[in-house]
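Here comes my example:
=====
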Amino acid sequence: MNYELYAIEELKHCIKGQDLIKAKAIFNQNSYFSKETTKKFKELLFENKETFSVPIFLYMIVKAPKHASYLESCIIYLLKRNSSCLIDVFNKLTEKQEMLLLVSMVSQIKNIDAEKFYTLILRNYNDNELITASLRAISHISSEKFLSIISDLLYADDLKMVKAAINTIGHCSLDMAVNALMCRSAVDIELDKCIIRSLSKCATRKRAEALGEYLCSPNSTLRNLARLEMSKLKEVATPILKDILKSTKNDDLLIICLNTIAENGDNQAVRAVRKLVQSQPHNPNVRFAAYDALGHLLSKESTLTLTDGLFDNHDMVRVAAAKSLEKNWGDFSRRGIINLLNVNEDKSDIIEAILTAEGTEVFLGLIGDSLFKDLSINFFKESHNKQMLDFYLRICRQHDLSDMVEILFECVEKLQTPTQQEKIIVVDDSRLLLRIYQKILSNTGYSFELFEFAESAFESIKKRKPKLVITDLNMPGMDGKDLVNKIRGIYPNEELPIVMVTTQENEIRESIQVQEYLIKPFNQEMIDKTLNKYLNRPSEN
């Protein structure tokens, strides 16, 4: 008789005598039984009490993980067949690994017996590992019944347990859950980040209000994370964001609120944003963010507001207004722009803004007008922005605009390779701002690379050291501070200059290893001055 047949017979004897210790010994001697033998074990164990069979199956998983998926399905079947045995099964387990396995599986039962099981562990056990595993499991079932117990664990002396408790409470839709989380906030930045992520797990007004509080945080990392998480609440967050727009006079808060509205894309915010624009905020960064937000919202009523933005005294704002026309483009917009070009003597700023914005629908809607076409051709002929020229060349080819294809092709061909091969890296999460950087840097003679994501920029910097890095401060994911810290782990200050760009002058007080802060809004002159300072290029003046 081979060992597998012997093991089957031995298991029968153990079952008859309900001897768990001897049954486990079978799997100590040989943990790698064939699938056929394992199925035979299952048949035998299914015929017996769960308090005997489940511990054996758990022990088999520990000893033979290659059959884990199959064995786990057996355990779930038995527990659903008789869930009242859960606590008795747990009390028969002797190994921590078996206990943790059972704790993770019980969440699939989802009945009153499962709730009693987790309540027992949370209240009666002092084992941090078991409690943390239970918290993770509870997050997959209704956590309302455990709220009072879990709230106490927010103040445990084990970091993993506290984070697990925060995550579990995040799945509870009750307002009391939000109160519990906010009482734990403002102590530790890592825990605050966990709380922010937890708040976005249920879309309720109370949670949106709590995330709105984090939008007001003096810490840029928390603000950016709150913005990212609040965008997940979509229309639930809109009333809170609208209230902030109406009530605050803080420019930094207005900007981050407008950025969140842009990411939400909820058209219910249109009127509030348009009203803010019409109030003519003195800060061009607020105006830029407002037009950028309108560019993510659909409202034909905004056309007049958007065309007004083409007359702003700052070029960045004009580009944002031009780009926002793309989503709300129509015949009314087209006639309005053509009329503006005909009645205004200084048309260059309007043309530059529209073409820099690279709006396909806007360009195709206007290129049929002879005045716009002539002004565009003149602009293209003077431009050094190869990426922009390539964009319009591609659009004209796709739409069989052969005369424009010929002109744009000649414009691209005459462009020379950058005279300075030192590479500049620019990082900003705003695609619109990257277009503006593209326009400005095209006139400098330097080669450059633009990155929307800091992670990608860092990978490029690791492979080849650039001559200069220009990075935004507030970005989702890896922000400007994180990027600078990673770069400084490779290149010290004296080896690679970094310029931090921000709208928030108060951030300058933070200790970041950069050579200089550049306060938005910036223009060609400011960028030229920065390049002259750090790249040893003689000024043209």
In short: The longest helix spans residues 3-17. The chain has a mean pLDDT of 88. Residues 420-534 form a domain with the Rossmann fold fold (CATH 3.40.50.2300). Residues 179 and 210 are 9 Å apart (CA to CA).
